[in-house]
Amino acid sequence: MAGKKRNDLYILITNDDGVRAEGLRNLRAAMEEMGRVIVVAPEQQQSASSHALTLSDPLRINWLDDSTIAVDGTPTDCVLVAMRGLLERKPDLLVSGINHGPNLGDDVTYSGTVAAAFEGTLLGIPSIAISVASWHDCKFEAAREFAKVIVARTLEEGLAPTTLLNVNVPSCAVRGVTGVKVTKLGKRVYRDVLVKKKDPRGRDYYWIGGGDPVWESEEGTDFEAIEQNAISVTPLHLDLTDYGQLEAVKKWKLSF
To answer: What is the dihedral of CA 123, 127, 133, 139, to 10 degrees?
Structure first.
């Protein structure tokens, strides 16, 4: 089905890099080959916004054309506003991306790209997050083409109501991809640093920074797939309950 357009297919796309991002343009081009597309994306860069909602300020929207809407909020705001106030009907699918940079392992908890897909899932829409696994000189060809493949298969096979797909694609041409692997989340080795400085008035301020993230080497992870120049597809579940510890904590016999 990839590449075959369905006139009845309605796709919502968003991102966290902003409505003018190159990755979003590539995703839109791919999805327009599949069906009808509506873009509702942040007006400005919203990377690492996670699942934040804007509650203390009004959200303003700007129609850039008849199928592109910029929202001055987070990716989660965009999905919520789209579903509750902007769209004429419920989309058949939500695709978030194509993110400039990987969303691997523990970093999915920070990602606005993944959070938008989480919000879509919460609202009952089959949802996919797609990222290019490079921060520098991102090449979107493989991600753009695989977006059509994963969307087609998702529509054919379906997703469980509480599951979304997190996809990471090597930053390369199609011919550079070694395959597709269904993976689990890897474990990040945290080396972030906190840099303390002073502003011109003598007040302290901080930058959270550091080099590119490093992950533990473990078989079957999203990081291993990307290290091998393969596409990683990781099913993520909304239920964060640790069932392995549920019975153990019950044995604590807590009381108050």
So the answer is: -120
